[in-house]
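User: Structure with nicotinamide-adenine-dinucleotide, tokens only please.
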Amino acid sequence: MNKTRVELGPRSYDVVSGANALDQLPALLAALGVFERTLVITDSNVHEAHGGRLDILANQTQLFKTSIAPGEASKSIESAHRLLNEMTGLGMRRGDLIVAYGGGVVGDLAGFVASVYLRGIAFIQVPTTLLGQVDASVGGKTGVNLTLGKNLVGTFHQPSLVVADTTLLETLPEREFISGMAEVVKYGLCFGGNLFDLLTTALGKAISRDVAVVGQIVALCIASKAAVVANDETDLSARAVLNYGHTFGHALEAWAGYGRFRHGEAISIGMMFAAGIARNMGLLDSDAHLIHEQMLGGVGLPLNAKFDRKSLAEYWSRDKKHQTHPRWVLLHKIGYPQLHSDVTDEAIQTAFDEVSA
Ligand code: NAD
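Assistant:
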């Protein structure tokens, strides 16, 4: 079992990960306090596969459960509205608790409703996808999508606890596991170090879900994310590097219609796009570009797609993280990401050519 503390002063919390980490949940929750009512928000796939696992909490709180339809389309204002009405109907009060039990979609949506209900109530994350465990559940970014862009409505609301039980990943469909590996590769490329070395030597074991390797990967990603979030909780500087591949990726997801590309698939192509820009601007050497291709391709992620260039550029011009010009995260070498507002149109057009199917 691994425990990482996200150091954020009064908003600090633990992230506990590993096989059967859920067995610790009753004790971890008891240490947070007494919650009269708890609403578990999940999706129907997770409910079917693992719905009973949280019944261990029924001795210490009045436990309610609700489900959303699986998939990105549920990360919407409409779903948030429905959940908020349901919480009101249950008589939930400020001292009650939300449990986000699912992938990044459930985590972002449940975190969002927890952050706005009665001006904010506590929530914990129990991520059930690889993407959720290595990235989305830690850091307190919540949100829903608008038709015109991803995550355009949201808040920063830190969970009080994250419990990432890697045994939950056993039922995850192959495509979802591979999608999660995109965020893992992102951490390896952006931070280098032990994770990059592990991916270089044990990529095959990772994709065949070797229990020990997956456990190590989850713990290493959580440690990287916790350190970045502790330095820059609200994404003003250091945290922006975690958006590697996301400017292009979010635009592709929104343009294609939510759900056609998995989040990880879109950011895989986005990382190839960013690596192309960096190489075209003379910032990144061809070997490092090739490492992108080999790692992402080796995992089984897409490296290109069909898309409309003009529309993607319109989508990323609305990206909330940009001031007047898009800020691109570009690697100068493995483990050395930098923010750039000086990307030339020529470098973008050449990179477009390279990731067009
Ligand atoms: P997801 O939540 O849609 O889950 C993927 C699919 O797997 C769904 O169909 C779900 O029902 C199913 N599933 C989940 N757990 C399962 C399990 N254990 N067994 C069987 N099926 C299971 O997708 P995701 O990839 O986890 O999350 C993507 C979302 O995360 C995007 O909306 C993205 O914007 C967001 N995200 C947020 C952050 C953040 O910091 N808040 C970071 C990265 C990504």
